Amino acid sequence: MEQLLQQIEQVKQEINTFEGYNGEAAETFRIKYLGTKGIIKGLMGGMKDVPNDQKREFGQVMNALKQLAEEKWEALKLAGGDGAAAGGSTIDWSLPGTQQQVGSRHPISIVRNEIISIYHRLGFAIAEGPEVEDDWHNFTALNLPENHPARDMQDTFYINQNPDWLLRTHTSSVQARTMETQKPPIRIICPGRVYRNETISARAHCFFHQVEGLYVDENVSFADLKQTLYFFVQEMFGKEVKVRFRPSYFPFTEPSAEMDISCTVCGGAGCSLCKHTGWVEILGCGMVHPKMLDNFGIDSNKYTGFAFGMGMERICQLKYVVNDLRLYSQNDVRFLQQFTSSV
C-alpha cells in the first residue's frame, strides 16, 4: 500500500508539470494517463494487493488522481483548440483577442421606445391588447358597422367567420377595450402590430406597427390635441420642424384631421420622399366621436376626448431615411448593424 501511494504521488507531480499547447500534446497526455493501457488504469490494477481494510482509502486516492488527470486533459484540449487533430498549429498567445460583435436594437424598437418616452412625460400610460380581435372591438364599437364603406380600406385576415375573428387592423381595438373596463379620465397610448390586406412593396406591407393615443376627460378640446402633437413632433424631430393639419374623415372621430410635417430629408424644399411637396403625412387624429363614447357607457354630454394614430415605420423612415418598408422585416444584418450606435 505504501509503495502504491508513493507511485501515485509521483504521477500527480508528473501531471501537474506536464505542458503542451496543441492537440497532439493533449492526445499524448490522454493516452499516457487515461488510456485503456495508461498509468492510472495500471495503478487501479493494484487494488487487488491492497488489504481489505485499506481498499476504501485507496479508492478515494485513485478517484482524486483520475479527477486531476481529467481536469488537466480538459485544460490541454482548451489550450490546443479543443482537441484539434494531431499536428495542428500551436496557439500564438501574443496575438490580440477576437473582438466580440455588439448587437443592436431593431430600428422599430428604438422608435417605439422613444415615442413611449415622449408621451410618458405627458402622463400617458401604455395599454396593450390581443392581435386576434373580434368584430365588435375592431369595427362595430368604433362606429364602423357592418357594410360601412370605410371597412373596405381595412379588409384583413379573418381567422373565423360567424362570429368574425380577425387579425386586428389597428390598435384602436385597444382603446375600445380600455374604455370598456375603465372610466374617465383615460390617458393612454397603444403601441402594437397590426395587419392589412396590402400588396407588399417598398411603400406598403401586410403588417406594420402603430402607436395610437386616447385622452378622455372633461373639457378636452381640439386645442389640447394640437398642443399634444406639437410637443411630440418637436421632441421627435426637432424644434425647427413645421406642422400643418388638413381636414379628413375617420369613422371614430369628428372632427378629424391628417397631420403633416415639413420633410425632414429635404427641409421642405421638395424631394422624392415628400413627392416634391415639402410635406409628409405622419398621423391621423380627431375628437372622439360621441357615439363611440356612448358605446362604452361614457356620458358624451359630460366627457370629450381626442385620439390619434401613427405608423412607427413612417416615423422611422423620416428619422433614419429608410426608403423601403421591407427592410424592417427581412432581418438583413447589413441593415440592422447601421443602428448599433443607437442602442
From TrEMBL:
Q: Which cofactor does it need?
A: Mg(2+)
Q: What processes in GO biological process is this protein linked to?
A: phenylalanyl-tRNA aminoacylation
In terms of InterPro entries, this protein maps to: aa-tRNA-synth_II, aa-tRNA-synth_II/BPL/LPL, Phe-tRNA-synth_IIc_asu, Phe-tRNA_ligase_II_N, Phe_tRNA_ligase_alpha1_bac, Phenylalanyl-tRNA_Synthase, tRNA-bd_arm
| Domain Aminoacyl-transfer RNA synthetases class-II family profile residue range list | 121-315
Compartments in which it is found: Cytoplasm
Please state the protein's primary subcellular location.
Answer: cytoplasm
- Family the entry assigns: Belongs to the class-II aminoacyl-tRNA synthetase family. Phe-tRNA synthetase alpha subunit type 1 subfamily.
Database matches in HAMAP family: Phe_tRNA_synth_alpha1
**Know the name of this protein?**
Phenylalanine--tRNA ligase alpha subunit
Source organism per entry reads: Deminuibacter soli
